[in-house]
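Hi R.,

Here's the input for the adenosine-5'-triphosphate complex you asked about:
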Amino acid sequence: MSDAPRLAAPSETAPLLAVAGLHHWFGGLHVIDGVSFSCRAGAIKAIIGPNGAGKSTLFNLVAGSFPPVSGRVSFAGREVTGLPSHRIASLGVSRTFQSSRLFPGMSVLENVMAGRYARGRSGFLSGMLRLPAARRDERDARRRALETLEAFGLAELAGADARSLPFGRQRIVEIARALAAEPRLLLLDEPACGLNIRETERLGSLIQDIRSRGVTVLIVEHDMSLVMGISDEVVVLDRGSLVAEGTTSEVQADPRVVAIYLGDA
Ligand SMILES: Nc1ncnc2c1ncn2[C@@H]1O[C@H](COP(=O)(O)OP(=O)(O)OP(=O)(O)O)[C@@H](O)[C@H]1O
Ligand SMILES: [Mg+2]
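And here is the predicted structure with adenosine-5'-triphosphate in place:
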């Protein structure tokens, strides 16, 4: 073997997620206005900004809920712009939503198992016919969901009706459901919304733990103590435009960010 330094493979240096020149309109409203940024593998990156800044829309564009009017999204070195959400999910992007979306009438375990199906290999037909591949997928989903619940300290609630849990627990179940698909990138849209201070602190530790397991985290959040406590980098959006990007101390010291948060922009 040669002692010469090994050139890094492109996948080791390229960001896990990159968005470039993204634009989106709703009706006449320019909601995302030329946004470009990237997120390296292994980071916790936050997207902050006032209500209506376009944060959730940006998540929807990354996750493939709808295609951007223009611009590009690439994930793990391949362009995913315009791919439907289930394709992007199968490539390794999972998300939670700003408002709770647990399935009614299903237990915690079933909700988390449902998150696994983005990864299942068997198709709809084999599921209907209970073919061996579908049964194997279901066994995998159950095992993996139980492991995730265990790791989150929720194992004893596996059989409970998910929607009957206290709100803070429901939010954690939603994160567990997103992780059951074993994503490389997890998008969290306001996970601390409605949580009390202690729950928010626990959520911060949980997100750091998720990152330490090798999952990159992109988080939209209004709770600044959480954002500043756990993020490696922060993107600031205002009225659809990226106004600042940097470390937590860089963005906190940025006069444009201060102006936005003091209502002075
Ligand atoms: N489906 C839609 N149709 C029309 N307008 C929309 C739609 N979704 C969002 N908008 C508008 O786009 C703008 C950005 O909304 P978005 O939900 O992305 O903001 P946000 O930064 O996530 O805000 P918040 O912090 O309140 O969640 C807002 O003016 C919103 O009213
Ligand atoms: Mg939002």
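One thing worth noting: Confidence is low (pLDDT under 50) at residues 1-11.

Cheers,
M.
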